[in-house]
């Protein structure tokens, strides 16, 4: 037998995944080479969520209006016949494009509320599409709808036309958020799922921060909209790089397709493939033979007293964090000073906030983290209300503290909510909380408009709601390191103090 060449490399031995009760993770491992690659690829779509949901900050950037009529200073008075916008900072915005001033001033905020309504609608629509037709088609549809509707916004001839297509962009953006998150979570094992779920929020924070950079170099709203939209063209790579969820294929009985995808992932992860087919077929036979569990409904969240309290308190946390984060982000642009630096500073703090959430939830638990982050928001916003007459530096610093707290809260409520509700109503519980949260996002721009009466009103409202959220959190039990509730009875008893036996 000929000797093996000295430079020939021995093939690396296969590393069988640890067998678990989860048939999918048992074949591909918790978090290996493929999951890491998929994590970075799928994160690309998350940048757009920050760009499109908060792009309004610069699309409708403050543009001073003055009256050029002799001896008239108020541009909104009947005596003023000619007005002029100050275009020294922004050459054009939707404010200058459609004269959204005076009695039409609130239309700009209404357009942003429609965006948040689109996020609500998109979450529901694409969630149902993903469950019915598969994660991949719903994901691809949302990606390309975001691209094409976003480009149409750039050429909007009328304000109502702009609102309709910004609404569609938001619907698509919600679709990319929900379906991409599900795609990722369904191939990541429980050991890394917590960290991956939180770090997946980072591109949103980076997207928010980069808006100031886009706006600094692009001062015309149509080209600015184009710049934050055209990136979506890269999503064409998803046609080849994003397969259908093998877990969804497995649970819907499409075993051959599920097995083929699992074999490809296993090869990439250097895991054995010969056992995948028999083990998946055996797991599905067990699943099919199992007695169907009674499905819960959203109403079951309110049937029993303790589960009802937990549902209301968790939904309130979602309402507050959406209101505070989006409202404060928009409010910063109204504080005066350099709008680019102010928004960049306020947005950048979200990055360490999300990273800090990983550490805090791991070592302090979900409940203490939520109390501390809501407290941080409350302190910053109430200080902002009290110091609303101070200089821009003080105001931006206070707003940044409030926004930092919300950036820690945001990923935590996703994790906390998913762990709090029992399995039979977990999707309904998280879906309900998400809907309530979007209500907070919708009203946030309208609350910011109260600055027309006094600058302290909006931060006072946001701050008081943060305090209310802290109070509600007291009634929510800790979920770190506990067995998650499965049935409605578990959901009612979960977190109750056990009575001492005499």
Automatic annotation (TrEMBL):
GO MF annotation, one: transmembrane transporter activity
Biased composition (Basic and acidic residues): 1-13
Source organism superkingdom: Eukaryota
Keywords: Membrane, Transmembrane, Transmembrane helix
Domain Major facilitator superfamily (MFS) profile: 41-481
InterPro entries named among the record's database cross-references: MFS_dom (IPR020846), MFS_sugar_transport-like (IPR005828), MFS_trans_sf (IPR036259)
Main location: membrane
Region (Disordered): 1-21
A GO term from the CC aspect: membrane
Spans traversing the lipid bilayer: 36-54, 107-126, 138-161, 167-188, 195-217, 223-241, 307-327, 339-359, 371-388, 394-417, 429-447, 453-476
Compartment(s): Membrane
Membrane topology (UniProt): Multi-pass membrane protein
Pfam families hit by this protein: Sugar_tr
Descriptive protein name: Organic cation transporter protein
């Amino acid at each position: 037998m000929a000797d093996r060449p000295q430079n020939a490399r021995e093939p690396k031995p296969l590393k069988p995944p640890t067998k678990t009760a989860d048939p999918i993770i048992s074949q591909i491992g918790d978090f290996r080479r493929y999951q890491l690659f998929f994590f970075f690829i799928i994160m690309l779509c998350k940048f757009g969520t920050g760009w499109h949901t908060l792009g309004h900050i610069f699309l409708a950037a403050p543009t001073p209006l003055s009256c050029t009529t002799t001896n008239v200073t108020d541009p909104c008075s009947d005596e003023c016949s000619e007005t002029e916008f100050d275009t020294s900072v922004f050459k054009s915005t939707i404010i200058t494009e459609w004269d959204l001033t005076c009695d039409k001033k609130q239309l700009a905020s209404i357009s942003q509320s429609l965006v948040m309504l689109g996020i609500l609608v998109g979450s529901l629509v694409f969630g149902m599409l993903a469950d019915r037709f598969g994660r991949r088609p719903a994901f691809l549809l949302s990606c390309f709808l975001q691209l094409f509707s976003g480009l149409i916004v750039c050429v909007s001839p009328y304000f109502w036309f702009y609102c309709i297509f910004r609404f569609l962009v938001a619907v698509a953006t919600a679709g990319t958020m929900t379906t991409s998150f599900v795609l990722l979570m369904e191939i990541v094992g429980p050991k890394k799922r917590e960290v991956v779920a939180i770090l997946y929020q980072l591109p949103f924070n980076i997207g928010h921060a980069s808006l100031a950079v886009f706006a600094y170099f692009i001062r015309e709203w149509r080209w600015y909209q184009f710049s934050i939209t055209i990136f979506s063209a890269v999503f064409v790579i998803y046609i080849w790089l994003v397969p259908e969820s093998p877990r969804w294929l497995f649970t819907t009985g499409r075993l051959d397709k599920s097995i083929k995808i699992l074999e490809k992932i296993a090869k990439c992860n250097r895991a054995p493939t010969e056992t995948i087919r028999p083990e998946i077929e055996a797991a599905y036979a067990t699943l099919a033979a199992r007695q169907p569990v009674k499905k819960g409904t959203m109403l079951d969240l309110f049937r029993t007293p303790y589960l009802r309290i937990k549902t209301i308190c968790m939904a309130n946390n979602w309402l507050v964090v959406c209101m505070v984060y989006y409202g404060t982000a928009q409010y910063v642009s109204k504080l005066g000073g350099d709008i680019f630096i102010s928004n960049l500073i306020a947005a950048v703090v979200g990055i360490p906030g999300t990273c800090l959430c990983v550490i805090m939830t791991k070592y302090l638990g979900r409940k203490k983290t939520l109390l501390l982050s809501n407290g941080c928001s409350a302190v910053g916003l109430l200080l902002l209300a009290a110091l609303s007459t101070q200089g821009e530096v003080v105001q931006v610093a206070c707003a940044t503290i409030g926004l930092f707290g919300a950036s820690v809260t945001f990923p935590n409520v996703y994790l906390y909510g998913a762990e709090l509700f029992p399995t039979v109503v977990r999707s309904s519980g998280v879906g309900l909380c998400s809907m309530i949260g979007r209500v907070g996002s919708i009203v946030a721009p309208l609350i910011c408009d109260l600055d027309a009466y006094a600058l302290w009103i909006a931060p006072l409202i946001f701050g008081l709601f943060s305090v209310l959220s802290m109070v509600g959190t007291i009634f929510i039990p800790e979920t770190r390191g506990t067995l998650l509730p499965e049935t409605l009875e578990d959901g009612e008893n979960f977190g109750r103090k056990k009575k001492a036996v005499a």
